[in-house]
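Module 6 notes. Inverse folding takes a fixed backbone as the condition and produces residue identities as the prediction. Think of it as a translation problem where the source language is geometry and the target language is the twenty amino acids. Below is one complete input and output pair. Work through it position by position during the lab.
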């Protein structure tokens, strides 16, 4: 089990889509073609999983249903993290209810999530510019 360091948890945790937090990007692949999409409602769970609301990212959701491997990145000037893991699309149950509540808290009834994405973290990389390996877990 790979655990996110505290600094990475602080950077990635953005349950209510605060504009004060760095934007988070998720990368997927469809038949060898890379796809990149911004995501906003992200919650760190037990320091080894990310729960993400899928609001408008239909292509991302379809790609994960075909091939569950994902990469997630977020950075502020000279500091950031890339997470690699396995994603699972969830359309019912407690995780889906949780993302619906996260989005509702911020936007009321204007936006309704299509699904929740639960990412099991497998690798963590530092994005700080430095020589050598940047894998930290």
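Target side of the pair, the amino acids:
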């Amino acid at each position: 089990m790979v655990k996110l360091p505290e600094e990475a948890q602080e950077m990635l945790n953005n349950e209510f889509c605060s504009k004060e937090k760095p934007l988070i990007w998720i990368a997927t692949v469809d038949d060898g073609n890379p796809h990149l999409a911004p995501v906003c409602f992200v919650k760190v769970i037990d320091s080894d999983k990310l729960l993400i609301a899928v609001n408008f990212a239909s292509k991302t959701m379809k790609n994960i249903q075909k091939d569950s491997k994902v990469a997630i990145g977020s950075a502020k000037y000279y500091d950031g993290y890339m997470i690699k893991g396995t994603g699972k699309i969830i359309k019912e149950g407690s995780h889906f209810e949780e993302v619906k509540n996260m989005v509702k808290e911020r936007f009321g009834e204007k936006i309704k999530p299509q699904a929740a994405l639960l990412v099991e973290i497998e690798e963590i990389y530092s994005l700080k510019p430095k020589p050598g390996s940047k894998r930290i877990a």
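Reference fact for the lab report: The longest helix spans residues 94-107.
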